[in-house]
């Protein structure tokens, strides 16, 4: 065990954990930030997606030490315009079914819109193919991303 | 599975009949501390078990009205994504004339018969979710609950205002008396209503008067929490002092612990305990990471003397022998299939193969248990609540009534969480017992545990002979070889396991000469219902063979089916609707590699037809568009029905295109989403159109019926695109081409 300093959702946090522990488990088991989900542990499903310095990152394979000194944002702290627009669209279109993968889906979608405000279907495929939804809510995920993009475009600067 | 065929659900609960019957008369004390002051209607009494406190909220078994006018519907069913946390409240809100914005939902406790599934058993002796029965079995129960609550609110208003109840109206959550211009909210009337006798009879609405049910989109009650990371699943439960466990299970099914050496595991920082349990050896740590590392260091010697050591190849060889053998039970028999086949001039002989399939819900199986000297509390996405309760009691040495079940939202299930051994719940209870109740225990299955953990959709082999006589008469003979899901469970018997042969051609078409037989291999791989159960394989071979027969007869696949569906008006109607919406009768904008196919199938009381359009490039199959028509009776929440059809299609496509659990020497070859491939957004059809057939019949299932038709519809489309018939799942076009040439 050793001390790891993190900035999570804008707050400085210090943890006494194995530096090799994946960020996912530091968030969930030690910081009680359970919105980020465990799905596969191998970066195959995207349920654990968080933003590190704004970049979508699979927290299940990211050692907590690698996040030290960087800005980590989880679903609980998502507050960017793109993030808000995505969440609003998700609720408006009733995207979730079981809902378990949706934190990761939303973090990936928010990162996509932050870098690409008008994604095409192919852009969406590229950015979202790493996020599995066993309920197959994909038709609505696609619609919600387009809807969020439209809402962002219509919003006053 | 079709639970309506269960004749003795009480058998599920054998061993504790005295407790269960007593529990029917005991006010549930387990709710204390849950934040709900729920009273229960005690059988034989006419009043809610209210406290007599005039400030008490209105509390009936399914409906709770708070002073702030929020109406909480107690869901006796698990929400695993299928939308019951919206559909069940919608039924209550309709009869209550509530505003949708005041509706809330909470899980009911484990309690029979109050919360029993009436489709499993009309007496409600088992609580559970499955067979796409949630809305169907709750339909009249919750309409009555809503109408009863409404009548009591009206009665309370009539008394307060000294007017006739007949003159009072209720709309959008407001109780009004027009001539005196008085109005009250539900919350204002709730306490007074709670003091009234429960009316023995209530009048339900004429469905023509419905304002919520079937009327477009009702926002899901769980969308917001699920879009903000706030929904609490079992894996999110945090209790003071809680530890996390993972279990090392035998590498082959049927293996047992011979001995183990925990010294290296215990040396891992954070590991607090290593204990043997009936299913293996549990490593307990302060967090998942330490428990996992501890398990990696654990050394277990297994006794595999009784383990299943065959692989998929050996099993299929055995299944082929059974398919050609005479040992079989008759599942359905009509006319003279053998005689007509002998005279038929267009004969088709085909073997179909279906692999084992893992459910792979996104939330790996997780349960939390807090064990005390005389009580046990479970938090999980419980699907068979009262079965889970009995099994947790057995593992902890308690009695069922001492086990409190907290049913949380499940991160998917697709049938996985419903099993008579309550596998993961029994495990967490046994770990809590083995660690002496020293700490609350959270058990987490890793994805590898999930994929390799068994309880799969059974491996199946179908051998079919079908033909058309000169008079156009169709004969159909099918041997199904597949494990019984119900064998070894309280529902198992000596006869045909209905879940192995459900949705067969005898049930689904007006065939005059049909024979369906079933051979049951003895295999040590645990199997379970997987979204639509036997229909997953029965629909495929049936709809592919029917297509081949149409082709042999030189007829259009839709017209050919309609000719065989004269006694199946619902099948005919959805088939016509899907064909119309897909533009079936217009020339198909095909081109190289393009094809479209159709399938129709009834399951869980609903009938679904799908038209799939595909593009095949080389050996790659892309599904471009699916047009789906469904008759599910009254669609309570049509937007949820649409979502469930899309979901069932995506789930079925995963299995059609990639899903496969194989074994080598008894060991499972796949362990995670790299080799157990599932549908991703880039592979999902861009167009999935769902059309709901208008109906005035009572609601039937929607969680599962969208799945069975998609694989055969796609296979039939691939046939049109390539000329290749696919008879083995998952689809392997290259292999199918080779076989067809050979």
Detailed description of the structure:
The complex is a heterodimer of chains A (157) and B (742). Chain A is α+β, with helices and mostly antiparallel strands and 157 residues long. Chain A folds into two domains: 2-77, Ubiquitin-like (UB roll), CATH 3.10.20.30; 81-154, DNA polymerase, domain 1. In chain A, 38% of the residues lie in helices and 16% in strands. Chain A has a five-stranded mixed sheet with strand order 2-1-5-3-4, with helices on both faces. In chain A, α2 (81-92) crosses α3, α2 crosses α5 (138-154) and α3 crosses α4. Chain A starts with a strand and ends with a helix. Chain B folds into three domains: 3-219, Aldehyde oxidase/xanthine dehydrogenase, molybdopterin binding domain (Aldehyde Oxidoreductase, domain 4); 234-305 and 365-444, Aldehyde oxidase/xanthine dehydrogenase, molybdopterin binding domain (Aldehyde Oxidoreductase, domain 4, 2-Layer Sandwich); 312-357 and 456-741, Aldehyde oxidase/xanthine dehydrogenase, molybdopterin binding domain (Aldehyde Oxidoreductase, domain 4, 2-Layer Sandwich). Helices cover 29% and strands 22% of the residues of chain B. Chain B is built from 20 helices and 27 strands. The longest helix of chain B has 28 residues, at 134-161. Chain B starts with 16 loop residues before the first helix and ends with a helix. The model of chain B is unreliable at 1-53 (pLDDT under 50). Classes of the chains: A alpha+beta (157), B alpha+beta (742). At the A-B interface, α1, α2, α3, α4 and α5 of A face α5, α7 and α18 of B.
Order of helices and strands of chain A: EEHEEEHHHH
Largest interface: A-B, 58 and 65 residues
Number of spatially distinct domains of chain A: 2
| CATH H-level superfamily of the largest domain in chain A | Beta-grasp domain
Looking at CATH, the homologous superfamily of the largest domain in chain B is: Aldehyde oxidase/xanthine dehydrogenase, molybdopterin binding domain
Mean pLDDT of chain A: 96
CATH architecture of the largest domain in chain A: Roll
Rg of chain B to the nearest angstrom?
27 Å
Envelope shape of chain A:
globular
Show unreliable segments of chain B: 1-53
Kindly give the count of domains of chain B.
Answer: 3
Distance between the termini of chain B: 38 Å
**Strand runs of chain B, count:** 27
Could you describe the largest sheet of chain A, including whether it forms a barrel?
A: 5 strands, mixed
Total of helices of chain B: 20
CATH fold name of the largest domain in chain A: Ubiquitin-like (UB roll)
State the share of residues found in helices of chain B, binned by percent.
25-40%
Q: What is the fold-level CATH name, i.e. the topology of the largest domain in chain B?
A: Aldehyde Oxidoreductase, domain 4
Determine the structural class of chain B based on helices, strands and strand pairing. Answer: alpha+beta
- Give the second-level CATH assignment, the architecture of the largest domain in chain B: 2-Layer Sandwich
